[in-house]
Write a structure and sequence with these properties.
The chain has about 375 residues and is α+β, with helices and mostly antiparallel strands. The chain is built from 10 helices and 20 strands. It has 2 domains: about 220 residues, Rossmann fold (3-Layer(aba) Sandwich); about 140 residues, Beta Barrel (OB fold (Dihydrolipoamide Acetyltransferase, E2P)). It is elongated and about 80 Å long. Bound molecules: adenosine-5'-triphosphate (ATP) and magnesium ion.
Length: about 375
């Protein structure tokens, strides 16, 4: 990856039937970067890809390629190639001719064509399949033909719209690794679309999280996972407990009726916040070893760990632990300052991150003016 931008989208707006489906997209992609657009169905991923490919013209905003404005430039004149979700291979041509197609259109001399097709076939591991008809190939093999066909023309940027969605899980994992290694060996810029968060985290240099036509966050997979900017991102990427809280001061946040040390700072005094705690960061201890303790509702064995839902004063936490926990058991949950991530309130606050529903008790408990003795009366009430 170089420091030079290959693609710049500036304030891109796209409207359909008076409704904005892209609401001012700003995105810069570096030459050789693997960028993934991630978000729920309908958030505008494919539309963003089409803007880059030249299949959709923005209602406003600018598209730059290598520093030059390319609005209005025909798709075939852009140094961009697309792999669609349905690979759009030619069923009447064999593997070799499918891959060679773009080169024939461009009148590449026969000798060079043969060499380039051979290299592409080699790269995607299809040697020996050249004469096979498309409809005799498996899904994964067709996928490889589609990749070979796209890279043989040596585009600067490859657009991939959910290219692995049709494959079963095992094959999908293999292809993730292969695609990544093809991208690295060719040094082509990839703009990849998926709604699978694990796929996005494992393959990308940069992840772009979208919702409702708006980019919510751009960052490395680690940034996105560890420092989500709001409840939407925290919820969409991995599992999250998201709790209402109040930032008492730098490095001290109040939630679940407790004031707890954290590493976050820079919020206003007593600013209401969303607090996210990943299930795998929670330590299970004896009930008397933590102010936060509750009853285990249910436990699911997940192979590597157990996943438990724990009821702490009516809020259901998800925890993942390798310790054995049992339904009906009382446990303590211990949080280290590093495991707490504080986020600003947003339009997504209160919509995500509880494993049942927010209870009235939790609202009360997160109030900074709420006193410890009130806590006891709630506990007494609950016992009645
Ligand atoms: N040609 C069109 N005419 C009208 N509306 C459209 C058109 N193309 C897309 N849309 C709408 O724009 C929004 C964004 O669509 P887009 O295809 O970009 O979503 P996506 O993120 O790719 O979703 P998915 O994960 O389902 O593929 C959707 O609400 C869609 O219905
Ligand atoms: Mg799409």
């Amino acid at each position: 990856m170089t420091e030079k931008n290959i693609i710049d989208l500036k304030n891109i707006v796209v409207e359909y039937d008076g409704e904005q489906v892209l609401k001012g997209i700003d995105l810069s992609i570096k030459d050789g970067e693997f960028v993934t657009l991630l978000g729920p169905s309908g958030c505008g991923k494919t539309t963003t890809l089409r803007i880059v490919g030249g299949f959709v013209e923005p209602d406003s905003g600018d598209v730059f390629f290598d520093g030059k404005r390319i609005n209005g430039l025909q798709p075939y004149k852009r140094q961009v190639s697309t792999i669609f979700q349905r690979y759009a291979l030619f069923p009447h041509l064999n593997v070799y001719e499918n891959i060679a197609f773009g080169l024939r259109v461009n009148k590449v001399p026969e000798k060079e064509l043969q060499q380039r097709v051979r290299d592409a076939v080699e790269l995607v591991g299809l040697r020996g399949f050249e004469k096979r008809k498309i409809d005799t190939l498996s899904g994964g093999q067709q996928q490889r033909v589609a990749i070979a066909r796209s890279i043989v023309t040596r585009p600067k940027v490859l657009l991939l719209d959910e290219p692995l969605a049709a494959l079963d899980l095992k094959l999908r994992k293999d292809m993730q690794v292969e695609l990544k290694s093809i991208q690295q060996s060719l040094g082509i810029t990839f703009l990849f679309v998926t709604h699978d968060q694990e796929e996005a985290l494992s393959m990308s240099d940069t992840v772009v999280v979208m919702d409702k036509g708006v980019i919510q966050q751009i960052g490395t997979p680690q940034d996105i996972y560890n420092e989500p900017v709001n409840a939407f991102v925290a919820d969409f990427i991995g599992e999250s407990n998201i709790v209402d809280g109040v930032m008492l001061k730098d490095n001290l946040v109040r939630f679940a009726g407790q004031s707890i040390a954290c590493v976050d700072k820079g919020f206003g005094k007593n600013e209401p916040v969303d607090v996210v705690i990943r299930p795998e960061d929670i330590d299970v201890v004896r009930p008397d070893e933590s102010p936060l303790h509750g009853l285990v509702d249910s436990v699911t064995f997940k192979g590597v760990h157990y996943e438990a839902i724990v009821d702490v004063d009516g809020f259901k936490w998800m925890i993942q632990t390798t310790d054995v926990v049992r339904a009906g058991e009382e446990i303590g949950i211990l949080l280290n300052p590093d495991d707490i991530h504080v986020m600003k309130k947003s339009e997504y606050s209160g919509k995500f991150g509880d494993y049942s529903t927010f209870s009235e008790e939790m609202d009360l408990l997160s109030d900074p003016n709420y006193q410890e003795d009130a806590e006891e009366s709630v506990a007494a009430e609950a016992e009645e």
